[in-house]
């Protein structure tokens, strides 16, 4: 009986195109059942060495992003981006996100990013809640030339959170909720449209599901 085992041998000295690397990154993602590819995972399952991707794209993260995948080990991520991701998840699920959900769509960052920044997932949630519940300060829109404008057109992260929390992550038009309809998108929308003079304040904002928001348009 032949006890020889099959082994993966990486081909050396052969010209590897950027397209081949991107294709192989996507193949590894499909095999592993994840869109968050680390160098360690790729070294185990990929056809090329990670250093090849780094040489072709300048960095490992750039190669992963170009392939349409998510970065597993991005460093120095700002609080704003991490908080934005938390609110994305909170809105997506209609409730406080769970640690395990950081590894799944639509999360853009893994748990390690929050651990590096805040020491733990629990501390990250606490920091986000403290930030989001702080008093909102109105900032004039520099692009708006009309002197009567007192607020920017787009609500800040903090203001969007306050409206979402106030409205319980439920569409104020039809009552739909992501907690009952996974994947349902909830938007923060002006009651009196910005184009008709409505300000971006908590009292002039409400939550609408995407179908209701698109149907309402600018009426």
Which SSEs are present, and which pair or pack?
Blueprint (H helix, E strand, L loop, with lengths): L17 H15 L3 E2 L1 H7 L4 H8 L2 H7 L3 E2 L7 H15 L17 H8 L2 H12 L24 H10 L19 E5 L14 E5 H7 L3
Parallel strand pairs: 1-2
Antiparallel strand pairs: 3-4
Question: What does this entry show, briefly?
Answer:
The protein has 219 residues and is mainly α. It has helices spanning 18-32, 39-45, 50-57, 60-66, 79-93, 111-118, 121-132, 157-166, 210-216; strands at residues 36-37, 70-71, 186-190, 205-209.
Globally, the shape reads elongated
Helix content: 40-55%
Helix run count = 9
For the largest beta sheet, what order do the strands appear in spatially? Answer: 1-2
Largest sheet geometry: 2 strands, parallel
Termini separation (Å)?
77 Å
What this model shows, in words?
Helix 3 crosses helix 4. This protein is mainly alpha-helical. The longest helix is centred in the N-terminal third of the chain and has 15 residues, at 18-32. Helices cover 41% and strands 6% of the residues. The model is unreliable at 138-147 (pLDDT under 50). The protein has 9 helices and 4 strands. The strands form 2 sheets. A two-stranded parallel ribbon has the order 1-2. A two-stranded antiparallel sheet has the order 3-4.
């Amino acid at each position: 009986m032949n006890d020889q085992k099959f082994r993966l041998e990486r081909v050396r000295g052969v010209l590897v195109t950027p397209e081949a690397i991107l294709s192989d990154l996507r193949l590894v993602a499909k095999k592993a059942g994840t869109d968050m590819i680390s160098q360690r995972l790729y070294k185990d399952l990929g056809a090329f060495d990670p250093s090849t991707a780094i040489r072709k794209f300048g960095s490992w993260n750039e190669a992963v992003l170009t392939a349409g995948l998510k970065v597993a080990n991005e460093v120095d991520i700002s609080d704003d981006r991490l908080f934005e991701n938390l609110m994305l998840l909170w809105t997506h699920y209609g409730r406080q996100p769970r640690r395990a959900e950081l590894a799944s769509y639509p999360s853009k960052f893994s748990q390690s990013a929050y651990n590096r920044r805040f020491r733990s997932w629990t501390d990250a949630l606490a920091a986000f809640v403290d930030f989001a519940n702080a008093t909102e300060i109105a900032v004039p829109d520099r692009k708006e030339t009309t002197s009567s404008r007192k607020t920017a057109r787009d609500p800040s992260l903090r203001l969007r959170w306050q409206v979402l929390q106030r409205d319980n992550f439920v569409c104020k038009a039809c009552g739909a909720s992501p907690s009952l309809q996974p994947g349902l998108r909830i938007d923060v929308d002006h009651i009196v449209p910005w184009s008709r003079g409505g300000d971006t304040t908590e009292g002039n904002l409400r939550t609408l599901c995407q179908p209701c928001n698109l149907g309402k348009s600018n009426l």
